[in-house]
Automatic annotation (TrEMBL):
<dbReference type="InterPro" id="IPR019109">
    <property type="entry name" value="MamF_MmsF"/>
</dbReference>
<feature type="transmembrane region" description="Helical">
    <location>
        <begin position="40"/>
        <end position="61"/>
    </location>
</feature>
<keyword id="KW-1133">Transmembrane helix</keyword>
<feature type="transmembrane region" description="Helical">
    <location>
        <begin position="6"/>
        <end position="28"/>
    </location>
</feature>
<protein>
    <recommendedName>
        <fullName>DUF4870 domain-containing protein</fullName>
    </recommendedName>
</protein>
<keyword id="KW-0812">Transmembrane</keyword>
<keyword id="KW-0472">Membrane</keyword>
<dbReference type="Pfam" id="PF09685">
    <property type="entry name" value="MamF_MmsF"/>
</dbReference>
<feature type="transmembrane region" description="Helical">
    <location>
        <begin position="67"/>
        <end position="87"/>
    </location>
</feature>
């Protein structure tokens, strides 16, 4: 059961990226589950924080090419964290 809750925290990127890891982190009594829920929450928050920073940088940039570059960089960051969450969810299920 603890592997299922832990991996579900990572897989929640498909359906409830912030709500499920926060709920599991608060409610779960098992240290293993809480640690994975916290890691999943941080990995869900990372693209949001990067997006806000890149949005600020894009507005301060003067050229259209720079804005496109920031959008591409955000897409790479988001895709990387998406793949990371899937890999972590599978690894936790396999342990």
């Amino acid at each position: 059961m603890r592997q299922l809750l832990s991996s579900l925290s990572y897989f929640s990127i498909f359906f409830a990226p912030f709500l499920l890891p926060i709920a599991v982190w608060i409610i779960a009594g098992d240290r293993f589950v809480r640690e994975h829920a916290k890691r999943a929450l941080l990995s869900h928050l990372f693209p949001v924080a990067a997006g806000i920073l890149l949005l600020i940088m894009a507005f301060s940039a003067g050229s259209f090419g720079a804005v496109i570059g920031y959008v591409i960089l955000f897409a790479i960051i988001y895709f990387g964290t998406f793949v990371y969450n899937i890999i972590q969810g599978i690894q936790v299920l396999r342990d």
